[in-house]
Amino acid sequence: MTVVDDQDTPPPAGPPSRLLDLGLRLVGAIVVVIAGVVTGVLELLLATVRVGGQLIGVSAVLAVGANIALSWFAYEAVGRRWAVALPAVPWFALMAVAAIRTTEGDLLLSGDNWVGLAMIVAGAMTFAVMGFRQILAPPHTLGG
């Protein structure tokens, strides 16, 4: 005959605490903001890539793919529809700063670089479409 002590059994799994959920959402928001900055810098660096002396549009393609992924991850990590703004705001700010000439005459994105202009348009349109899709999406339900 065996005797099972009630104290040895683990408690049943329940929903995570509100504080843990809030902490995970906050960490997700911070990761998304940092990722928006990192992808923006990477896209700016790749805007001047040339093959055989000709500009290639790798940064515009990267802008579309990265911004789709960032928008999706922002919603999944934070759980709010407005979360698409978390990567978009630093990305837009970075692009605006890159297009302004410094007092020394430095300029990251010039008007004669078609790849840089395409990257800004493609990235901005991607964030706009992803935000619009979040607005029109049906409410997210658990278990369904």
Keywords:
144 residues; two-stranded antiparallel ribbon; single chain; mainly alpha; 2 strands; elongated
Model description:
The protein has 144 residues and is an all-alpha fold. 60% of the residues lie in helices and 3% in strands. It has helices at 18-46, 58-78, 85-98, 114-136; strands at 50-51, 54-55. Strands 1-2 form a two-stranded antiparallel sheet. Helix 1 (18-46) runs antiparallel to helix 2, helix 1 (18-46) packs parallel to helix 3 and helix 2 packs antiparallel against helix 3 (85-98). 22% of the residues are buried.
In whole angstroms, the N-to-C terminal distance is 45 Å
Number of strands: 2
Separate helix tally: 4
Strand order of the largest sheet: 1-2
> Low-confidence parts lasting 5 or more residues at pLDDT below 50?
none
**How much is the average pLDDT?**
87
The oligomeric status of these chains comes to single chain
Short description:
This protein is mainly α and 144 residues long. The chain has helices spanning 18-46, 58-78, 85-98, 114-136; strands spanning 50-51, 54-55.
Task: Write the topology of this structure.
Blueprint: H1 18-46, E1 50-51, E2 54-55, H2 58-78, H3 85-98, H4 114-136
Antiparallel strand pairs: 1-2
Helix pairs in contact: 1-2, 1-3, 2-3, 2-4, 3-4
